[in-house]
Amino acid sequence: MYNINKDLANIFKKMAAIYEFLDDRFRAMAYQRAAHIIEDLPDDVRNYIVTGKLYTIRGIGPSIASKIEEYVQTGKIQKYEELKKKVPEDFIELIDLPGFGPKTLKRIYEELGISTKEELIKALKDGRIERLEGFGPKKVENMLKGLQMYEISKRRILLWEALQISRYLVDKLKKALKEIHKIEVVGSTRRRKETIGDLDILVTADDENRLKIMDFFTSLEEVSEVLVKGPKKSSVIMKFEGKERQVDLRIFKDEEWGAALQYFTGSKQHNIHLREIAKEKGLKINEYGVFKVDTEEKIAGETEESVYKAVGMEWIPPELREDRGEIEAAMEHKLPKLVELRDIKGDLHVHSTWSDGVVSIKDIVEFVRNKYKYEYIVITDHSKSQRVAHGLDEERLLEEIKEIELINKMAGLDFVKKGIEVDILLDGSLDLSDEVLSKLDWVVASVHSHFSRDNTDRIIKAMESPYVNAIGHPTGRLIGLRDPYPVDMDAVIKAAKETGTALEINAQPRRMDIDEIWVRKAVEEGVKLVISTDSHNLGNFAYMEIGVAIARRGWAEKKDILNTKSWEEIKKFVNAKRKKFGVKV
Description:
The chain is an alpha/beta fold. Strands 11-12-13-14-15-16-17 form a seven-stranded parallel beta sheet. It has a five-stranded mixed beta sheet with strand order 2-4-7-6-5, sandwiched between helices.
């Protein structure tokens, strides 16, 4: 069953924004809160209805609960349909974009009479908006950039979203059609790129069952338009989370499976290079197999391994297939042994209800120990500069430490480690004292402000603290919403190596920070990495999968990732840095 929580949360966010546009702050806050609660539920909201637990969800009142039931039953919320008529139609899609927001759009609407996206873009470019009080060149520039990023992001979806949709479709096809022998999601989803365009699915089946499979696929309830329907390929438009996505399904024979899998996984550059090498060997590769050019004899194609072996290579993991040296390494049998999800022993960046997380430390421990079998987690709530996130000052942090120690004592384990996500201030100093930081097991330091400034020196100075063990989301980007802040990552990587500081691969779907390019650079320089989920709710822990995917795309091995190691080994890493800076351990 496709999880509808995100769809419902998106509607509630739009309702909140519209209410704010209409100056109804109370309802705006109620629906914004409801959106976050629904988004953070560990299970599909429909299961709460079935089990009679919907009205017991903390923070969901009877009015909003009834709208959830209405959406589940009818696929729409009548109140939302009514609200949309009270706001210019184009503003609905822009109303929760960074740089815009309900108040900004309302001013533009009331003072300039602008009600369409086209008029808005024109006014941004011709200076009318810049002349409004409180608007300047920088704000207008950021609004135009935000619009540009939004238009690009509309055409692509985040990896996490693509994986959820793909798995839902694969599961649906497998359960309904016993005629399918093999099935796999291919393209950039299989390569685990951070954003995905169209979704591509391959199956194998007997010829006589092709039409039945295509009939089922093109008649799925999510299909809004059939673009192409044939016995070998069908393309449809499907609607998920209010967005339309193209999904292609191709059917091959079992003996063609490996060749088709290799061909449609890509990337284009990887395949071109592969075909060039095959040509040099008198071979031809296509989606049906590997053939001798002179005789047309098929020599491989049933498995991917056979395709690569035919041209003298070891099998190349999909994440590496970007033509960045993986083909040469495969020919020499020198590919890295990439880190795997099962190698992860713990999560080093977790938020609780002490700051802006929605789950207590006690409940986090119970959930993680049951589901993930980790050896440790580190609670890293925000520090005091993050007032909006209820950041901890020294006094509250010491109270949290006592709670962690009590939870460990009651469990008879040393499972929960004491940490913080400390803010890096503008001058590179930290917003908590060394005295309290020295009491912690692990410290993540992050930039959360002044994104327009060059933050290189700021981050490097933070790394010179003996108590900072990792830099969180080092480039500060939010995919599709915010570009990385100015930072010289080469200099940061060099400083990380010199100071004994790790860099984080933040696995939040919109962050994926650092990305694969900087992961590979860090690995080459011998800098240790941590893969963290930055969890704020129980569902976020699953993001570890895509964090590992980014590490793999950056050629990282198990030895490069700190949280594949025991806590004793991590403790040695922490102590080594303290000793380097003259701190007694």
